[in-house]
Specification:
2 domains, coiled coil
Length: 132
């Protein structure tokens, strides 16, 4: 009989131990489901903010482009105030078509300037490391 009581006590202890594990597992499961729900809500909120910021960025880009166009039109590429066929040589505005190469060289020699022609101008472009 003593063996029977001892075995029942062991079984009761084992059942108690397994019961506490079951409670802990169910508790952790509940907590994890709650965290998943909170993260899903946060994710949805961040997606909405991202879409709003993305559309605001597009609006700003188009606004910048429009301002650039407006400022370009203020200066007027084709207006009478600015003529792209004229150049400043020795402090004077000179029509390039009216001058011969010898006259330009002579004016530059008097003014001490250097003659720069289109072939002499090179532009170095650095690649943007963020686009590679």
């Amino acid at each position: 009989m003593a063996a029977w009581e001892k075995e029942q006590e062991e079984w009761a202890a084992e059942r108690k131990r397994l019961g506490s594990w079951k409670v802990r597992c169910l508790d952790y499961d509940k907590k994890m489901n709650e965290k998943i729900k909170n993260l899903a809500e946060d994710n949805e909120e961040l997606r909405e903010k991202y879409v709003g910021i993305e559309s605001e960025l597009e609006d700003l880009k188009s606004h910048i482009i429009q301002e650039h166009i407006n400022n370009f039109n203020k200066v007027g590429c084709c207006g009478s105030k600015y003529d792209v066929k004229k150049d400043v040589i020795d402090g004077c505005l000179v029509d390039e078509d009216d001058l011969s190469t010898e006259q330009v060289k002579e004016m530059l020699a008097i003014g001490g300037g250097d003659l720069v022609v289109e072939e002499d101008v090179t532009m170095q472009v650095e690649t943007d490391p963020t686009t590679n």
